[in-house]
Amino acid sequence: MREHDLVVIGAGSGNAVIDDSFAGLDVAVVEERWFGGTCLNAGCIPSKMLVYTAHVARTVSEAGTYDVDAELLAVRWRAMRDRVFERLDAEREEGRRARREADFVTVYEGTARFTGPRELRIEGPDGAVDIKARQIVIAVGGRPSVPPPVLDSALPYETSDTVMRIDAPPSRLAVLGGGYIAAELAEVFAAAGSSVVIVEKEKRLLGPQDETVAERFTELARARYDLRLGREVTEVGGRPGALRLSLDDGSAIEADMLLVAVGRVPNSDRLNLEAAGVATHDDGRIVVDAHQRTTAEGVFALGDVCSPVPLKHVANREAEVVAHNLRHADDLIEAGHELVPAAVFTRPEIASVGATEQECRERGLDIVVGEARYADVAYGWAMEDTTGFCKVLAERGTGRLLGAHLMGPQAPALIQPLVLAMTLGIDAATLAKSPYWIHPAPTELVENALLDLDLRPRA
Question: Can you give the pTM of this predicted structure?
Fold first, then answer.
């Protein structure tokens, strides 16, 4: 049994743990599928490249709003797909090549399972190999969740892992799920010419978002898609290319293709963690402490397999923390998940950080709400935006910022001043009145939302 100083299981964000500071050690990387992980191959990056194309297509279609005569002839799906994945597949192979050529790294391509404390068996194309290590990092990510009515059917379906690489967009696409993955991919396929129906068990799309965002986005989506909200699929029938989805209200949907986007689950169940002494939460996430250490000595975890906030920028931060803590056992640092911003790259775009208004109510916080509309700032006039807004939540009296939520053009960039303020402890009044805000830039939207806050204590 070969022994390594460090083994990293998973070459997505886990691959970022290993830099030249580990060159004096015997390091191994285990990857069963994709160097670069979900983000590079089937997640954040390809979806945003496709979404950007969808936004361009919609800009052309809506050019008349700006007195520009233009006609959208077609979205050339196969050319778009090939442009995206030829680039990303090359990046993946470069990542694999770089690791294989590193003189202090051994690459094992195959599936890893624990056989004991810090001991692994790797099943690969060339057979099985047993290894052990002084330290192990688990970074195996997650996978799309598929509900029983779909699994029980023998009919084909797509997930975010597969749908972006199909040869042609379907004429009729049924999307099961109403979260951010469903919303972004619906945007892509609608722009490509698909008729989209979304089935979501909740009453609104993007349910975890702030209630104002979820309500207004749902109403906008209703004008573009066939929404079946508060409904669940009970059976998938028909035949490949001509599916029939039965819903719990007795209705049915005819579709050429089914995209399942109801969420993701961690891949922890594939590792035989019991043999390693690694505990998991009820939802399958690996239990880690503030320093990313698992319940097993010498074993760390990072990313979607353990994180309460399964986002790529969180996994990257956790990778930095793990890299430090592997080398500095007497000077451990923490990742921190208190103020993680997030975005949904639909049209309109959405961005958020901190608490939602409904969470503040549930916690019994005394808050004030400030809101500004794109339509009330000069750059919003330029964009002819009538639906976008910025909403900020602050503690009454102190002005401590508790949450911020934007819906509209450039929302993921516009939220960053609020992210910085909340992270650095800058109160709402200071943020609004101390710096200059460029006129007529879109950031005036944020300034106006802050100025809309009535921070005076209750009488």
Answer: 0.96
